[in-house]
Amino acid sequence: MSAQNPVFIPGPTNIPEEIRKACDIPTLDHRSPAFARMFKPAVAGIRRVLGMQQGEVIILPSTGTGGWEAAITNSLSSGDRILTARFGMFSHRWIDMCQRHGLDVQVIEAPWGMGIPLAEMEAALRADTSHSIKAVLATHNETATGVKSDIAGLRRALDAAGHPALLFVDGVSSIGSMPFDMAGWGVDIAVAGSQKGFMLPAGLAILGVSPKALRAMDSATLPRTFFDFRDMLKAYAAGGYPYTPAVGLIAGLAKSIEMLEDEGLSHVYARHHRLAEATRRAVAAWGMSPCAATPDLYSDTVTAVVVPNGCDGTELVQLAATKYGVAFGVGLGEVAGKVFRIGHLGMLSDVMLLSGLATAEMCMADLGWKVQLGSGVAAAQDYLRKSANAALAEAA
Ligand SMILES: *Cc1c(COP(=O)(O)O)cnc(C)c1O
C-alpha cells in the first residue's frame, strides 16, 4: 500500500514535513563556524524545553538508552549504590543496565500500572543514614504502562529525608510533550531522545546535566569514552564535537524546537492533554480501562489499554499493521498480550487521533471483540468538539 498512515506507537513518532526537510542538508564541516551557528540555538532551545537554569546540555549521537548509559557512567563508580523502582519495562531496563555496570541497585518493586512509590522511596532514603545511596533513578513516564510519576514529589521525598543523592530522570517519552521542570524539580540528569516528543528520527540522546552532576564526573570511575561528558564539554567550548556529530539531526532539532516554541510549550502540553483525554474517553466507551491505576497516573503521551479477558492485545496490533497499515504498540513484559498501546505524543492532531481510534475499533470488530463500531470514536469526537473552542480561545 502506498498510502502513508500516521503511526500510533509511543515512539518513534510522526515526523512533520518541515522537520524532514530541515534534516535534509548538504554535508557540512562540523568544525566550521556554520556548524556552531546551527548547534548553539538547538542547545539553547533544549535548555528551555527542559526548564534548566544551570548546568549543561549534552547531545550525543545515540538514543535514549545511550542517554541512560551516559548518565550513569559519567557520575558513578563500580559498586556505588543506587535506589530505584521497577513498575514497567523501561524502569526495568534501566535497572538491568545499572546491574550490568556493576552498580549495587536497591529496587523497590511496584505493580505494573502504578507509579514511583514515593512513601517507600522516602523510607529507603531515611533508612540510609550513612548516605551510601549515590543516585535515585526515576522513569518519569513509563511508556510500557502509560504511567506518569510525580517527580516533584520524589524531590520532596529526597529533601524530606535530607538525602544528598543525585536525581536522574528518564524523560524519553515525556519531554517535549508533557511539562518537565528540571530546575524546579531539582533534577540532576534528565534524559530525552530525538524520536519522541522532538518528532525527529531516532539518533540523538539529549541530556540536561546539573552542576552537581557535573561535579560527580571527576570522581566517577565507570569506564566511558564515547559518552565521556568531559570530552564533550571541552569540544563544545570550541563550538564543536570530539567526533563527527549527527549534523542532519541537529539541524532538525533546531527546527523541532522552533516548531514547539511557535506553538508555545504550554499549548503543546495542552494539546497532548486533550488528545490523551479523548483517547481515554474512547477507551471507556469500549468498556475498557487504562493500565494506569488511577487518574493522577494517566500519561498524556501514551495510553496502555487493558483488553478484555480472553482477548489478546498483540493480535490487535498485528492485524492493524497487516490489514490497515497502521502501527500501535504491543504490550511489553508483564503486560504482553494484556494491553495494546496508543501513542499520542509528538506531532498529532485531533483528526489524526480519530483515525487511529477508528482503526483500533475496526480491528476489535474484526477480531470478534464485543465493541460497538464507532462507540469510542463518538466519545472522542464529543470531547474534542467541546474542548476545541477552549483550546482555540487559549491559543488566540
Ligand atoms: C523509548 C524509551 C526509552 C528508550 O529509548 P531508545 O531511544 O529506544 O533507546 C527509554 N525510556 C523510555 C521511558 C522510553 O519511552
From TrEMBL:
Q: Which residues carry this modification: N6-(pyridoxal phosphate)lysine?
A: K196
Name a single GO biological process. Answer: glycine biosynthetic process, by transamination of glyoxylate
Q: Which one of the record's GO molecular function terms can you name? A: alanine-glyoxylate transaminase activity
Transferase keyword on record:
yes
* Signal peptide residue numbers: none
Q: Which cofactor does it need?
A: pyridoxal 5'-phosphate
Per the record, the domain of life is: Bacteria
Sorted alphabetically, which NCBIfam families does this protein's record hold?
AspGlyoxATaseBhcA (NF045640)
Name under which the protein is recorded: Alanine-glyoxylate transaminase/serine-glyoxylate transaminase/serine-pyruvate transaminase
Lineage of the species this protein comes from? Bacteria, Pseudomonadati, Pseudomonadota, Alphaproteobacteria, Rhodobacterales
